[in-house]
Design a protein that fits this description.
The complex is a heterodimer of chains A (353) and B (313).
Chain A lengths: L22 H5 L5 H30 L3 H5 L7 H11 L5 H13 L13 H36 L4 H15 L2 H15 L17 H38 L3 H8 L4 H23 L1 H14 L5 H10 L3 H29 L1 H5 L1
Chain B lengths: L14 H25 L2 H23 L33 H37 L1 H16 L2 H12 L3 H28 L2 H8 L4 H37 L10 H10 L8 H29 L9
Helix pairs in contact in B: 2-3, 2-10, 3-4, 3-6, 3-8, 3-9, 3-10, 4-6, 5-6, 6-8, 8-9, 8-10, 9-10
Classes of the chains: A mainly alpha (353), B mainly alpha (313).
Chain lengths: 353, 313
């Protein structure tokens, strides 16, 4: 697990994962959905612009001449260099390059990869499903597992179940993702031979649908296992502290007084309320999802966007790095925006205040 | 009654010194109170002892194993030998002792983790206190920027910057600090805003205290305990980040850290060679250090964050 994402830092102010949705709206006094939406959409738009600016700044201005990198292995005449410059549009003034870059990015024209000599857009479309399959499955499993254990942990705070699971979660959270992946490969693929070592499909599988699907599922097990093991602890701690916040409340006493069993009080009364603040945290943790998928895809040579990003570092394939930098950053910004919009619908308190 | 009463504190020569003495003794008392609360937590103490052992080992590495053990040309073992009497944890692909590498690696991993954290905390606290205290356009701007850094996927930013800036220890530290300061800023800013509204700050203002005096003498001391707790939790994530970057091959190529050992292990096929002795020691070392810092950090948080009192940890 890398730096961000949900931290299992006890009941630390949980929303430390990002701005608290709604708090800003409350400061402004009452406002309709339109105003709320406008405020957050414009904020996200500014953040996106900032990403575009900084990626141009990082990759065009700080980095050296891309021509040097492109032609590092073969000698080139000055004429060839000039021709290449003109082809890539590098001979034009900086502001014009910047304008081309902005309009290009907005119209999905991301340029060609140095490494594959193909449009980056095509590369991304090709590899996106693999990434969504791996991190989507992993995230859903991690959220379900984390919330299930977190609920029971918080409900019986201090019990053996609670202490055992918090300790296990912290232990797995402390393990570096890539190392856990290597150990998992060593044990389950190399020693036991139960699963394939890496990749997403074997070349020998028949091309029909079911054999292919089974093959991919077989390849998916170890990466998802690794990913889930490292990430679920964060969700466990979030849910646990959210349940702890609910535990002393009067409505639970009322529910018990009605004669409900303990499980019913927990699942029908405490959990729905505790889920409320966690919904946004799931979205806010998307940065951690991106981090985790980069490392996991690299360990397992999974043909997704994360491994493409890492490959591009060493080529170096700067247009790909730049495009993926923008894509990853934009997806986290949009996920946070989605969380804020969703919050309007699930938490009526924002609307009333 | 013959029991001697405790002697009164020596009279201070000037009111100024008396004030300072009072402040110092109060600070000592509050430190002792916090320490007592910390000591009561078993996991926190285990973490502290673990950390102590690791730091001593890292500092003593040059005494325990000569630096020549890291040299590729002077390696004495065979290629990826399993553990033996001569090499208790086996050897790497050029015949160096894994034990020596892991021991020496601790120095770099801890150094980078701690330095990056200190830089991040200094930036985060400065921006947090000033933005909370000054407010206005500056406060708004600082908040937007820290929000922005918080949302961006840290590893992506770190990889992009390292790919462009080049690989060295300095850039690694700078990049890790850059992606981790924003959390502290938010925490410190929130705490600054609560402290701001307390009456004693109004008193200070009424007596003519300037911004600098208010920030350093009144706000900062109130914010520091929280900063300490958050710093302790930032170190493990900095260490994990460093190890991920080094494992990806973005570390300083001239130094040995736990991440770079694992990078060499991957590159040289330690997994397909079933060389578990090459993978386990550096990885477990990262795990133990991260866990120890987390245990300490959670315990500190429980001491300084009253909401968490009574939590078993």
């Amino acid at each position: 697990m890398t730096a961000d994402g949900p931290t299992p830092a006890g009941g630390a102010p949980a929303p430390s994962a990002g701005r608290r949705p709604g708090s800003a709206a409350r400061e402004r006094g009452s406002s309709g959905f339109g105003r709320y939406l406008f405020k957050h959409v414009s904020g996200a738009a500014v953040s996106l612009l900032l990403v575009l600016f900084s990626s141009f700044f990082i990759f065009r201005l700080i980095a050296g001449d891309p021509i040097d990198q492109l032609t590092k292995e073969r000698p080139v005449s000055p004429e060839e260099r000039a021709a290449l410059r003109a082809e890539l549009g590098l001979d034009r003034p900086m502001w014009q390059q910047f304008w081309d870059y902005i309009t290009g990015t907005l119209t999905m024209d991301l340029g060609d990869s140095f490494q594959y000599r193909r449009p980056i857009f095509d590369l991304i479309v090709e590899r996106l499903p693999a990434t969504i399959l791996l991190s989507g499955t992993g995230m859903v499993l991690a959220v379900l597992l984390g919330f299930w254990i977190g609920t029971r942990s918080g409900w019986k705070q201090g019990s053996r179940f609670d202490r055992g699971h918090v300790a296990t979660g912290l232990l797995l959270y402390s393990a570096p993702t890539f190392w856990l992946g290597m150990i998992v490969i060593l044990v389950f693929a190399r020693y036991l031979g139960l699963f394939p070592v890496n990749g997403m499909r074997s070349p020998s599988t028949p091309p029909e649908f079911w054999p292919q699907a089974l093959d991919i599922a077989h390849h998916l097990v170890l990466p998802v296992l690794t990913y889930t093991a490292v990430v679920y602890a964060g969700y466990l701690m979030i849910m646990r502290s959210s349940i702890l916040d609910e535990i002393g409340n009067d409505y639970l006493t009322t529910a018990r007084a009605k004669g409900l069993r303990d499980d019913q009080v927990r699942d029908r009364h405490a959990v729905p309320n505790a889920l409320l603040p966690t919904v946004t945290l799931v979205f806010l943790a998307i940065g951690g999802v991106v981090n985790g998928s980069i490392v996991t895809e690299t360990v397992f040579s999974w043909p997704g966007l994360g491994s493409l990003f890492v490959q591009a570092i060493f080529y170096p394939d700067r247009p790909v790095l730049q495009a993926l930098f923008v894509l990853f950053s934009a997806s986290t910004i949009l996920a946070v925006l989605a969380a804020e919009v969703l919050y309007w619908f699930i938490d009526p308190r924002i609307r009333k205040s | 009654m013959t029991a001697s009463p405790t002697p009164p504190p020596p009279l201070a020569a000037s009111p100024r010194r008396a004030r300072r003495q009072l402040a110092r003794s109060r600070r000592r008392q509050s430190f002792l109170r916090s320490w007592a609360a910390y000591r009561a937590q078993r996991t926190g103490m285990i973490g502290l002892v673990l950390l102590g052992v690791i730091v001593v080992l890292a500092l003593a590495a040059p005494v325990l194993v000569d630096e020549s053990a890291l040299s590729v040309t002077q390696a004495t073992g065979g290629r990826m030998e399993p553990p033996s009497a001569a090499f208790p944890l086996g050897t790497d692909e050029v015949g160096r002792s894994i034990l020596a590498l892991t021991l020496w690696g601790s120095r770099l991993s801890l150094l980078i983790g701690l330095t990056a954290t200190v830089v991040a905390i200094v930036i985060g606290t400065t921006v947090g206190v000033t933005s909370g205290h000054v407010g206005g356009w500056y406060g708004w701007f600082a908040l937007r920027i820290s929000d922005w850094f918080m949302v961006l996927p840290s590893l992506v930013v770190a990889i992009a910057l390292l790919a462009v800036l080049g690989r060295s220890m300095g850039t690694t530290i700078a990049v890790i600090a850059l992606v981790s300061w924003s959390g502290t800023t938010r925490l410190v800013r929130a705490q600054t805003l609560t402290v701001q509204s307390r009456p004693y700050l109004e008193r200070a203002r009424a007596l003519g205290a300037g911004h600098w005096h208010q920030m350093t003498k009144h706000i900062l001391p109130n914010v520091l305990p929280l900063v300490l707790a958050s710093a302790t939790l930032l170190v493990p994530s900095a260490i994990l980040m460093e190890s991920s970057l080094a494992w990806l091959g973005l570390g300083d190529p001239n130094v040995v850290s736990w991440g770079s050992i694992l990078n060499r292990a991957s590159d040289n096929g330690a997994v397909s060679a079933h060389a578990w002795w090459y993978l386990l020691p550096p990885g477990l070392a990262i795990l133990i250090v991260v866990l120890a810092f987390m245990m300490c950090g959670r315990a500190l948080e429980a001491v300084f964050n009253p909401r968490l009192r009574g939590e078993p940890s």
